[in-house]
């Protein structure tokens, strides 16, 4: 699948750049939040693998059994080293991962404070960072609803 996704694409031959060549980054560090750990992991992981990268997945410490189940399933399906799953206390493990010199791309879903810390840590090596940060949640409240109770029902 990655080979097909990374195949060169011929563009307009009259263009100064008639060919588009996609290349993987290398090792993607995927740092996940406490909510929807498996769904978000699979979204990030399929993107990383399809683009030809390997991945180190840092699961949230609140989901150790999910991490073990995921690691087992991936170990059975993929060659060794393509995906590695880490589980443990949050900040120390995540800090070690995002500052590791073998990491070529960081993807974090989490809070703004954590996002700033990851961005600062990645800046020293100019590691690309993808941040999906919390704090803005959309909601639609119908005119016929009681706004005070409707607002809280979304969470």
TrEMBL record:
A molecular-function term among this protein's GO annotations: succinate-semialdehyde dehydrogenase (NADP+) activity
Highest taxon of source: Bacteria
Domain Aldehyde dehydrogenase, first and last residues per copy: 15-143
InterPro entries: Ald_DH/histidinol_DH, Ald_DH_CS_GLU, Ald_DH_N, Aldehyde_DH_dom
Enzyme Commission number(s): 1.2.1.79
SUPFAM superfamilies: ALDH-like
Alphabetic keyword roster: Oxidoreductase
Residue numbers annotated as active site: 132
Regions crossing the membrane: none
Family: Belongs to the aldehyde dehydrogenase family.
Keyword Oxidoreductase found: yes
Reaction catalyzed: succinate semialdehyde + NADP(+) + H2O = succinate + NADPH + 2 H(+)
Protein name, entry field: Putative succinate-semialdehyde dehydrogenase [NADP(+)] 2
Species of provenance: Mycobacterium kansasii
Signal peptide: none
Stored Pfam families: Aldedh
Gene3D superfamilies linked to this entry: Aldehyde Dehydrogenase, Chain A, domain 1
């Amino acid at each position: 699948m990655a080979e097909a996704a990374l195949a060169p694409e011929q563009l307009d031959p009259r263009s100064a750049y008639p060919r588009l060549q996609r290349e993987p980054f290398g090792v993607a560090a995927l740092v996940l939040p406490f909510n929807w750990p498996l769904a978000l992991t699979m979204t990030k992981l399929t993107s990383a693998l399809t683009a030809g990268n390997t991945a180190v997945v840092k699961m949230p410490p609140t989901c150790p059994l999910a991490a073990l189940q995921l690691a087992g399933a991936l170990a059975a399906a993929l060659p060794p080293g393509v995906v590695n799953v880490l589980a443990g206390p949050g900040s120390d493990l995540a800090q070690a991962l995002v500052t590791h010199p073998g990491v070529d791309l960081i993807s974090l879903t989490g809070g703004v404070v954590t996002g700033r810390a990851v961005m600062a840590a990645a800046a020293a090596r100019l590691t690309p960072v993808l941040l999906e940060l919390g704090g803005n949640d959309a909601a639609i409240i119908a005119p016929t609803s009681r706004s005070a109770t409707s607002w809280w029902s979304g969470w």
